[in-house]
């Protein structure tokens, strides 16, 4: 099996994991705040509204980012043919996508939290 095939396969696998995780979270969301399953951060576990929004929004982003990862990862695998470099770039890309996911969801939850706080005060 060629290096390109392996690297494309890894990109597909990682993207598929993101997509499948997103669909599971979207269609089988956790019913209650819990420490085991769902989008679990200090902010998302603060109240039920933030919990539901955090899980719904992160699920949608997981699907979106998973599809993007499939495409970008496959393209990178064709451009960078050295096995170790392609694997390293795939790893870095996966970490960046995960960070982007958390930053995006937390930003949305922070905005939602401050809007509900303003409604409460005003």
Q: Can you walk me through this structure?
A:
- This protein has 122 residues and is an all-alpha fold.
- The protein has one domain.
- It has helices spanning 3-27, 48-79, 83-121.
- Helix 1 (3-27) packs antiparallel against helix 2 (48-79), helix 1 (3-27) runs parallel beside helix 3 and helix 2 (48-79) packs antiparallel against helix 3.
- The protein is elongated and about 55 Å long.
- The chain starts with a helix and ends with a helix.
Average of per-residue pLDDT values: 90
Outline, from the CA principal axes?
elongated
Unreliable stretches: none
CA-to-CA gap between the ends? Answer: 64 Å
Radius of gyration: 17 Å
- Helix/sheet category: mainly alpha
Counted beta strands: 0
Helix-residue proportion: over 70%
| Run of helices and strands | HHH
Strand content: under 5%
**Largest beta-sheet details:** none
Total number of distinct structural domains:
1
Tally the helices: what do you get?
3
Oligomer kind: single chain
């Amino acid at each position: 099996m060629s290096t390109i095939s392996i690297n494309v396969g890894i990109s597909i696998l990682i993207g598929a994991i993101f997509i499948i995780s997103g669909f599971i979270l979207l269609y089988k969301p956790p019913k209650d705040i819990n420490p085991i399953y769902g989008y679990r951060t200090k902010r998302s576990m603060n109240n039920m509204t933030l919990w539901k929004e955090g899980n719904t929004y992160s699920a949608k982003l997981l699907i979106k980012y998973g599809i993007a990862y499939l495409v970008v990862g496959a393209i990178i695998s064709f451009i960078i043919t050295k096995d170790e470099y392609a694997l390293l770039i795939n790893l870095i890309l996966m970490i960046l996508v995960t960070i982007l996911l958390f930053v995006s969801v937390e930003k949305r939850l922070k905005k939602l939290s401050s809007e509900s706080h303003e409604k409460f005060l005003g």
